[in-house]
Amino acid sequence: MFKYLRPKEQSYAFLRDVEHPEKNRYGKSIETVPEDSSLRGQSLNINGDSRVGDNPNRYKQHGFYFTADNCISCHACESACSEKNDLEPHQAFRAVGYVEGGTYPEYTRLNISMACNHCDNPVCLKGCPTRAYTKFAEYGAVLQDSDICFGCGYCTWVCPYNAPQLDHSKGHVSKCNMCVDRLEIGLKPACVSACLAGALDFGIMETTPENRDALETQIPGFPTTDITHPNIRFQQKNKLPDAMYRTDSMPVQYKKNDKGEFEPQVAETSVSGQKAKIEWNINKLSTRENPLVIFTLITQAVVGAFALLFLGPLLGLETLTPENNPVAWPMFLFGLIGIQTIALVLSTMHLGKPHRFYRAFNNLRYSPVSREVAGVAVFYNFIGAFTLLTGLPQMFFWLPESVLQTLVSVSGWGAVVSGIAAIYFMHKIYRIPARPYWNHWQVFTSFYGSMLTLGPLLLTLVFAFIQLSKNEPWLQIAPAVAVMIFIGLLMESIGLYFHQNDLNRQGGEGAAARFEQSTKFGRSYLARNYGLLSALVLSAIMFFINLDAQAAVVLWSAAALIIVLTAIIGRALFYALVMPTTMPGAFFWRNKKFQEHARETGLAKMPQVGVLPELH
Fold first, then answer.
1. Which pLDDT score is estimated for 273?
2. What pLDDT, on a 0 to 100 scale, did the predictor assign at position 224?
3. Phi, psi values for residue 202, rounded to 5°
4. Domain containing 340 — which CATH number?
């Protein structure tokens, strides 16, 4: 296959055939498959070419080696990668970021070139609901098929290294493919061959490249290796200051601990020494995840409302029986179906390719996204069946009464159980180690707290207005619902209290997100907290104080307004504040502050700056 090389290919571009240990530092075999495996000898079908490469080390885990002391931040690696993969200006499979520290004249800059690390434990592969990722036996490469991807972006959440790139204009994710086409003919990846300073190298894992003697897995700004076991090794021996600072908008710095290792901590002042202000920033609460704000809140409200409607009569709440409310009962059920349908449509609109939503079921074994989608789909079908069986019983006149009642019971219990399970799967989506702000049990209390609060509140108000219009009493269910609302709000409040304390104690990106919560979004955060406190007080009043029907409706409506606004602000904060444990970015679209500036000033309309003018 070497006859397909370019003429006069330079010697430094060729892979080395060297001895290697049997296992890597994580205990994983360097050999990706046994010698007698049937996986050997298969074609990668690169560009439709069915030939099999003759690289003798084809079935050994390869990875990158980066010598930070040598990197001059020329970005030749980025340019080579971009040219080879024909990338758009807003994409970069490999990027060079940096951290800085010290004071003049001993000011130090540490450059870091980073792409996909083709990890031993690729969380992108496990998280992807469409199974667009594969860990190949050939070179241990983690490859992604953009044609299978439907653009949910979950892999970009779970990856600690910002390797998968969601292209909003095309509606799918793509990433570094290890240049497997070059590996097949014995060449190193394009980025490595283009490195001017010899900072970047590539080869079999745990082997020391030329002119190097260190194989470290840590460098200031690099996330913990515990999450994915990445296949990258560092060498950095030049003296660094005790504190290194990011130059992007993330309020994180890296400080040496007692062991001499750099740990991420909150940077309460910017590199220029400016202190953060306490602001509202209501406009910045709007993110690409807006559809998920609505989808999660509506789904939790519908599950809670249906559970109370179905279980209420079993608990002695006679107002919630179809016999006592022959009009309100079916109207409410069909209303639940309607708003849940809207929520499902919104959830698909969050995708880059909404018409491929059905692919979300492809990875039930590993992906929490697939499990959530399956759980919500089962709930939706059960509640739909229950609604038809009870709301339009005349359609089923041909069924024996006993069979009809059995179907009603099965569909009702099925909807309750699957709805509660769906919210559990929903919360698991956000338990991501690469996003410490989310990776806390507070997500559990928040989602189930919303179920206990929003659902019963919705049901009570709808029944109240319907029954008041008919001059019928509705206050029978009010005390029980007030207790449920109080419990839900209390659950969320307790979760939020421990959340902020745990984040401050743990430090790192989670504490940095908490810092922005109290500064950049400080006033919005306080408004949400005061709303929660007010709602707790109102729910207690609704339980302990007897009011007439009209006065009670006014009180419940006021409580509903406060609770709904609080829930929306809280959920918007949930998505706006999260910070990934990603590598520091410094240029253009990798710098969030630059993106904001580009959109505000109109620079984003210039494609060469690498910022899309509008988010999907």
1. 61
2. 87
3. -155, 145
4. 1.20.1630.10
Q: What are phi and psi of 187, to 5 degrees?
A: -105, 150
Within-domain flag for 183: yes
Structural domain total, the chain: 4
Domain end (from 230, 256, 275): 275
Q: Which of 317, 332, 335 is nearest to 482 (CA)?
A: 317
Residue 586 within any structural domain of the chain = no
Q: Residue 379 class from Cβ within 10 Å (0-12 exposed, 13-18 middle, 19+ buried)?
A: buried
Domain containing 36 — which CATH number? Answer: 3.30.70.20
Q: Which two tokens stand for residue 296?
A: 């999660």
Q: E strands, 34-130, where?
A: 62-67, 95-103, 106-114
Read off the pLDDT band of 460 (50, 70, 90).
Answer: confident
> 336 and 235 in one domain?
no
How distant, in Å, are the alpha carbons of 298, 361, 573 from that of 343? 6, 18, 19
Task: Clarify whether residues 359 and 421 are in a common domain.
Answer: yes
Backbone angles phi, psi at 102, to 5 degrees: 90, 180
393 and 518 fall within a common domain: yes
Q: What residues have CB less than 8 Å from 598, skipping those under 6 apart? A: 604, 609, 611
pLDDT for 514 beyond 90: yes
In terms of domains, do 479 and 466 share one?
A: yes
Nearest to 133 by CA among 153, 148, 151: 148
pLDDT of 475 reads: 67
Task: Return d(Cα 108, Cα 161) in angstroms, integer.
Answer: 23
Q: E-assigned strands of 168-310?
A: 172-174, 200-204, 232-235, 243-246, 252-256, 262-266
**Strand ranges (E), 55-163:** 62-67, 95-103, 106-114, 133-135, 142-144
Span 86-121, pLDDT tens digits? 998 888 899 998 899 888 888 899 999 999 999 999
Q: Which of 222, 255, 275 is the last residue of a domain?
A: 275
Where is 311: in which H helix or E strand?
helix 290-311
Q: Are 81 and 173 members of one domain?
A: yes
| CB 447, CB 297: distance < 8 Å | no
Pairing verdict, β 232-235 and 62-67: parallel
Phi/psi of residue 615, each to 5°?
-80, 150
Residues 205, 300: one domain?
no
Residue 287 falls within a domain, yes or no?
A: yes
pLDDT at 401 > cutoff 90:
no
Locate 323 and state its tokens.
């016999």
H/E run at residue 167: strand 165-167
At 293 the three-state DSSP class reads helix
* pLDDT value at 615 more than 60: no
Taking the C-alpha atoms of residue 289 and residue 297, their distance in angstroms, rounded to an integer, is 13
Q: Is the same domain home to 224 and 254? A: no
- What is the tens place of the pLDDT at every residue in 144-180? 999 999 999 999 999 999 899 888 888 899 999 999 9
Ramachandran quadrant class, 223 (left: phi over 0; alpha: psi -120 to 50; beta: rest)? beta
Say yes or no: 105 and 199 in one domain. Answer: yes
Whether pTM exceeds 0.90:
yes
pLDDT value for 1: 42
Question: Residue 309: CA atoms inside 13 Å, Cβ hemisphere, count?
Answer: 33
pLDDT of residue 2: 42
For the chain, what is the mean pLDDT?
89
344 three-state secondary structure: helix
Range of the domain at 468: 282-577
